[in-house]
Fold these 2 entries.
Entry 1:
Amino acid sequence: MSAAMEPRIQYAKTGDGVDIAFATAGDGPPLLVVPNGPFSHVQATWETYAHVYPPLAERFHLVWYDSRGSGLSDREAIDFSMDAMVRDAEAVVEGAELTGLAMVAYYDAVPIAVTYAAIHPEKVSCLVLADGWMKGSDWDHDSGVVLRALRGGDWTVYSETYARLRLGFDNQEFAAQFAAYVRECVEPQAVLSAYSSQGIDAWDVSALLPRVTAHTLVVHNRKNRLLPVQAGQRLAARIPDARFQVVDDRGYEKLPGIIAGFLGESDEISKPISERIPSGTAIILFTDIADSTALTERLGDASFRAKARDLDGSLRAVIRENGGTAIEGKLLGDGVLAVFTSARQAIEAALACGRSGDDASLPLHLGLHAGDVIREADNVYGGAVNIASRISGLSAPGEVLVSETVRSLARTSAGVSFEDRGEQALKGVGEAVRVWAVREGGA
């Protein structure tokens, strides 16, 4: 590592008088990395994440900082309320003279970045959010319970457990290095203050997500034991036009390339949805919750609607991940309509949607057809849409049925097999349509 690439550490003062340490390295477009709650240390971060920060500094004017109460910032100021976190970010953006910046955030930094981007949309052009969450209930699972139980106990046991839950057991050397990094970042008492009802536990950015106007990529690790993939899906689903990507990269070795690729794209990602809906021939996916009336009676209307809303967000995230466009303007009750330009991606999305429905205990009917569509504003119309809906209605819960047209387009590329269900008469359709059930795995 050359001396020219060593970070320059400076200080900014917040509106409430707290000294915040920030570091800069590299030239190019501005890229601000938001600290992961109390776990930040500008010098140690550069060294511990040598596979992330120096490569980013080779492409960007990289800026990162320590939140109050941690790292080289004022450790006596242990206010981890969201207001305090935003003041820290505001001080650094002003002190580093950043404009039109991209922001990167991971884990507990994600709600901070979302809040800042929603409050200051004129300052943030792009967001990359990795392994994020939007409210405390996203942590209500076994691993989160384990970490809460260990806080306030032996500091080494807590940091070692956190490192291995976060990074897994594949790279013990890096996990041990990361645990030592955690202990260098912050004092145990500050962690207790951070994860309290006055701090991170009170954060909830769900209402702010629709206000984010920055081009956004949400990245989530497939095997994340602290935050399941569904947390990332819900996050992406609520940010307008956000893109979602599942990765296997718990040490973030691939993150610099993902960031550079996303930020280096053309303005295609900024196009409104009406410009991304294909005209002419499209592959149409129709999903619908199976037996929703009975589920409403069993769960109660409020509970069913809450589960259905969460599933809707997950489905739309899956559709985006697989290159499709969910139609926002369609009023489908308990269903989602989406269009694709690739039959292979449409089938992959349908199978993933089916798994999401099963995971939510809201199994889906799923149907695919290909044909001409009429685009009007943010909706699509036409006979092909009606056929996709009718095919969906024929499927068993969790099953994906496709028309002969879709099978013909995808049979050599989709990596699935097809089971013939014969000619089917569809309501409102003059001619019978041959239908096939999708089976995962080649023939």
Entry 2:
Amino acid sequence: MKVLIVLHHRFELWQAPPWLAERLRKDFPAHEFVHLDTYEGMEQHLANAEVFIGWSLRSEQIAVAKRLRWIHSPAAAVHELLKPEIVQSEVVITNARGIHGPVVAEHVIAQIFALAKRLPSAIRYQQQHKWAQEDLWNERPRPREVAGSTLGLIGIGAIGREVARLALALGMRVLAIREHPEKSPDDPISRSSDGSTVAQGFSPVSSGRNREGASAPEVKVYGPGETDRVLAESDFVVLCAPLTPRTRHLINAARLARMKPDACLVNVGRGPLIDDAALLAALRARQLGAAALDVFAEEPLPADSAYWQMENVLITPHTAAVTGKLWERHYALISENLRRYLAGQPLLGLVDKHKGY
């Protein structure tokens, strides 16, 4: 079996380190592993590769990959791989959604605290050598507590589940939206009297008590039809949904109008989940409290983007998943899935090609 690895990227961390292929050759000596640093010459290797590890394939490359049976994406998003030729074929796709959950969730919580405690403003005042206690209190939204606030979670996959777990530990109320809120074996939930489902599979890392001593809230899970309701009740809205035709511009002018004027929007999913023009208009009009954005429709974010000038926007340059432990985690997943593939066992992180995630 031949495995082709092509992970060229302008950001060094997203490139597969040389030791990845070397360790795979050692652990799977009966198989061939080809690691290319660039896209040059990859077609000749695709012609007889059974497994491809990479971000994307062009239609002409798919056409020559006659022996391809499995594609693994080291990203959670796989929309770049969902060409009709692949979707309609028997080629299976897996992704790395389980790899990024813990570190991206930490980033989300950091963004929530930064917005709640007005840290971007405090840094600006620090640069001015200004003691801005009263200024910070008078800004909108005012500094607030995270405990007792409501988190609206759009998307409850590997990242969303970890965000929910951490939010519960902080005493937040969590309202989540996912495509199928019904009960499933790996995520036991029960029906609530208000038509939602209550997730039992989330366990706070704390003792289960908030600071007032009351029982910690559970996660209420709703279907997409309740998105407007969740937005209207939330103090913080976190986007971790996959990008599909149904979720593109999920957050538009109408949806933003549903949100509280002091609410904060956090996006660690995909840039096109948001209608940028609508969000900028809402932020300028103070219709929305603030936004923390890690992903954008165009990356790198152009220097002339209006987002750079917005004082109520916290920008991180797609670094939510950045960690020194990244490739060790990737290796653990890739090697386990290779063992499963060779043994004919179900693969981890299997993507539904028709749903797009």
